[in-house]
Amino acid sequence: MLALFMIAETAGSETGAGPTPALRRLIGALPGLAAGHIMIADRSPAEQPFSADGRGPDLVLEVVFADRQAAAAALVATSVLADLPALIGAPADAISHQLMEVHAFPVEPGPGPDPFCTFFVTYPGTTGNLPGWLAHYDAHHPPIMRRFPKIRDVATYWPLDWASALPFHRGTAMQRNKVVFDRLDDLVAALASPVMAEMRADSAGFQPMTARATHFPMRTWRV
Which of 13, 80, 123, 162 could form a cystine bridge with 175, CB 3.0-4.6 A? Predict the structure, then answer.
């Protein structure tokens, strides 16, 4: 599975209360779509340990395809995704995109309500041995993440070689990942749980990176 992330640092008020029908139709019209998520920044006051990471993006689209052929078709110049700036009230240069490989770590009992809360994490920059870093992360971090109280979903995303004719910046994250909960309160409680101490201890074993990760709560709707 491949995930195309479309990230708008700023978006118009059209996305403030939730995804518009036009945005849902845009994603739903993509041939070969396997799954889609519309994430809108949740800036509710919350005591979570990564609040200093800043404002974060207004909007993140996660568009999942089953294979390369379907993903490539979404990245041509005539793709419906080229209409995204007009739909969200943002200039093209405020949008970045990146195609990544999905690594899923299923959690019981599975999907919850709609909308739900996604903790969207990005590792920018790089490291001396990226394949080794990615393999270490997947072997160690997701098994701990799956023990968060009230966790609903865990996934990591690896970079890959990709081509695009869309008029947006190319994302260059060395990894992205997400943990999913029903509500922001559940996320905040999980980050205050003993599991978070395990996460920090495991992070101490990572190879040095050129930039620190960012962590943002996002209200998320399924398409």
Answer: 123
Q: How far apart are CA 71 and CA 74, in angstroms?
A: 5
Find out whether 155 and 105 touch, Cβ atoms under 8 Å.
Answer: yes
Q: What pTM did the predictor assign?
A: 0.96
The hierarchical CATH code for the domain 2-222 is 3.30.70.100
**What pLDDT digit, counting tens, does each position of 133-164 carry?**
999 999 999 999 999 999 999 999 999 999 99
- Give the domain ranges of the chain: 2-222
